Amino acid sequence: MGELLANVDPVEIWQATLDTLLMLGGSLLFTVLFGLPLGVLLFLTGPRQMFERRGLYGLLSVLVNALRSLPFIILLIVMIPFTVLITGTSLGVAGAIPPLVAGATPFFARLVETALREVDRGIIEASQAMGATPRQIVIDALLPEARPGIIAAITITAITLVSYTAMAGVVGAGGLGDLAIRFGYQRFQTDVMVVTVILLLVLVQILQSIGDRLVVHFSRK
Amino acid sequence: MIELQQAGKTYRVDGRDIPALLPTDLRVERGEIFGLIGHSGAGKSTLLRLINRLEEPTGGRVVVDGEDVTALDAIGLRAFRRQVGMIFQHFNLLSSKTVAENIGLPLRFAGNTDKAGIARRVDALLARVGLEAHASKYPAQLSGGQKQRVGIARALATEPKILLCDEATSALDPQTTGQVLQLLADINRELGLTIVLITHEMDVIRRVCDRVAVMDGGTIVEQGNVGDVFLHPRHATTRRFVLEAEQVDENEQLEDFAHVGGRILRLTFRGEATYAPLLGRVARETGVDYSILAGRIDHIKDTPYGQLTIALIGGDIEAAQRRLGEAEVHLEVLRGEVSHGEGGAHG
């Protein structure tokens, strides 16, 4: 057993796991915080919606598409000056979170927009007929109706963020993916590679099953 | 109560104007059930939505209780909409909320934060529509008829003066349709609520409406009391709806007529006259024979009516027709006399 996992340092693995979880938690929180309103805005200003604004929707769309088309590894580097500006450092977990949020927010916002479009238009019409304000329609009708879709969007985004964190090693953020690349790949320590990949797999599995359970719990159909 | 003054709606699609509703005048009186019937695309759905401005009119005015609805700002419009309940073909309930939460929603939208007060009101509404046992269920757990009852309870939550029904029974089976229509009639009577409903089924009009407007091609082609319109339709569209409701094929009927001799009359009885033994008496006294070609005895709302298509053969046909004409019967001659022999030969 010791022979088999000769290069695996439990402390290092534990630290890497912690870094991954920190990056994931921090970036997911801000992604949802920024992405949800952005998704709602995309939906409301979209074609044939309550606040249709061709100009604004077009602008937001281009912005979102531009950020989504940029490879994450490039985003990570391009954003360094901005990251220093808001976190004071471009290194470590803190240095990785701004680019992770910037990479995942447009993606999540699109998923939210799609989830809102899935809500029956009749719900909006009925709410309007009841005398609801636009704010009430969004908060009391649209978001609760889209809740299963939004939870599924958060799950997909979390899993995407897990794979993004592997690249965050470039700015010295650490984490499981970074360990796999530096030790497992570059130093041919296959045992480290296998252990970290298994840990990432388990993490993704856990995220997916939590997400699935929440979707089922909140689906009343 | 509700008045449309040259109100119309035109959509602009790819630079072309598509009229959905031509400039229309209409009056709906307080406390009545007013039906709008038409095929899809006739403009009835647009007309209904002009009343609570879910559709903005592109011309004319909508006046409700002396108030120009078309002139209201956003805040005024929301306050106005609380006085106008609406129910929908596909119910439009929130699947994420329980029955009780759905019914309480208009009260929350109105800014009511008194939870105990809302709960009491919801309980009363649940009792009103007979769903006391289903308060904590989700819409997906209910049948179509129950969902529409929730829709009705929700529409009544803010104690509106007007109820708009958008094809409210079109997604329901015939038995459930009857129950929902009965509930609407009860509400109309007990709460004095003015109801405007749209439908493509003449049977819905016949069962609950006081007055009806028939729509075709974005305009009202005929309107009046349901009894008059239903029993004596004038416009071709109206006739088609009536024949559909009675499941009569006009061509088949004409073919049937070819087999009988004599004079063919249609008699329409309304009210108590429906039950009078008129035909037998006239036949005895004038010596005519009659055969019944088609007939129906039913109700228009609460008024019984009968409509019989008969052939008079032999005897004193003129006297018989005169006697029938003097009675409380509406009489139409569908076909003049054909000689006995000719009719007999076919028969």
If you had to describe this structure to a student in words, what would you say it looks like?
The complex is a heterodimer of chains A (221) and B (347). Helix content of chain A is 79%, strand content 0%. The longest helix of chain A is centred in the N-terminal third of the chain and has 36 residues, at 10-45. The model of chain A has no long low-confidence stretch (mean pLDDT 91). Chain A has 9 helices and no strands. Chain B has helices at residues 44-51, 74-81, 99-109, 115-128, 144-156, 174-191, 202-208, 226-231, 236-246, 250-257, 278-286, 317-326, 340-346; strands at 2-13, 16-28, 33-37, 59-64, 67-68, 84-87, 162-166, 194-199, 211-216, 219-225, 263-270, 289-300, 303-313, 329-335. By secondary structure, chain B is an alpha/beta fold. Residues 341-347 of chain B have low confidence and may be disordered. In chain B, strand 4 and strand 5 (67-68) form a beta hairpin. Chain B contains 13 helices and 14 strands. Chain B folds into 2 domains: 2-237, 3-Layer(aba) Sandwich (Rossmann fold); 250-342, Alpha-Beta Plaits (2-Layer Sandwich). The A-B interface holds A 120, 122-123, 125-133, 136, 140-141, 144-145, 147, 218, 220-221 and B 52, 54, 78-82, 84-86, 88, 90, 92-97, 105-106, 108-110, 138-140, 154, 158, 164.
What's the arrangement of secondary structure elements?
The complex is a heterodimer of chains A (221) and B (347).
Chain A: H1 10-45, H2 54-69, H3 72-78, H4 80-87, H5 92-117, H6 121-129, H7 134-167, H8 176-185, H9 190-218
Chain B: E1 2-13, E2 16-28, E3 33-37, H1 44-51, E4 59-64, E5 67-68, H2 74-81, E6 84-87, H3 99-109, H4 115-128, H5 144-156, E7 162-166, H6 174-191, E8 194-199, H7 202-208, E9 211-216, E10 219-225, H8 226-231, H9 236-246, H10 250-257, E11 263-270, H11 278-286, E12 289-300, E13 303-313, H12 317-326, E14 329-335, H13 340-346
Parallel strand pairs in B: 3-8, 3-9, 6-7, 7-8
Antiparallel strand pairs in B: 1-2, 1-4, 4-5, 9-10, 11-13, 11-14, 12-13
Helix pairs in contact in B: 3-4, 3-5, 4-5, 5-6, 11-12
